[in-house]
Amino acid sequence: MVKIRLQVQDELTKNVVDTPRRSELRIVKNLGVVDLYFPAYAYLKKDWFGEFPTKSLGIAQLLTAGAIAGMPAAYLTTTCDVTKTRPQV
């Protein structure tokens, strides 16, 4: 989300005079923690692997949760990202 907002900010403010550029920190502050949260990863850690405040997970469990949460996202977005990136290059 932060990357996309940084990429499109010049297009959105092209006709506006004296518009300050947004920094990553400002965008993150505006989005808030909720929009930066990875719900699938959190769900997997808590419900599949049983992470609680008193029980932390091992590195293998964290990597597995991350891989499982990331696979559908990568599968669904790769085609669109490649289609978008090729004209940019």
UniProtKB/TrEMBL annotation:
It is a multi-pass membrane protein. It is found in: Mitochondrion inner membrane. InterPro entries: MCP_dom_sf, Mito_Solute_Carrier. GO terms for molecular function: L-aspartate transmembrane transporter activity; L-glutamate transmembrane transporter activity. Keywords: Membrane, Mitochondrion, Mitochondrion inner membrane, Transmembrane, Transmembrane helix. One of its GO terms (biological process) is malate-aspartate shuttle. One of its GO terms (cellular component) is mitochondrial inner membrane. The keyword Mitochondrion applies. Belongs to the mitochondrial carrier (TC 2.A.29) family. This is Similar to Mitochondrial aspartate-glutamate transporter AGC1 acc. no. Q12482. It comes from Pyronema omphalodes (strain CBS 100304). The lineage of its organism: Eukaryota, Fungi, Dikarya, Ascomycota, Pezizomycotina.
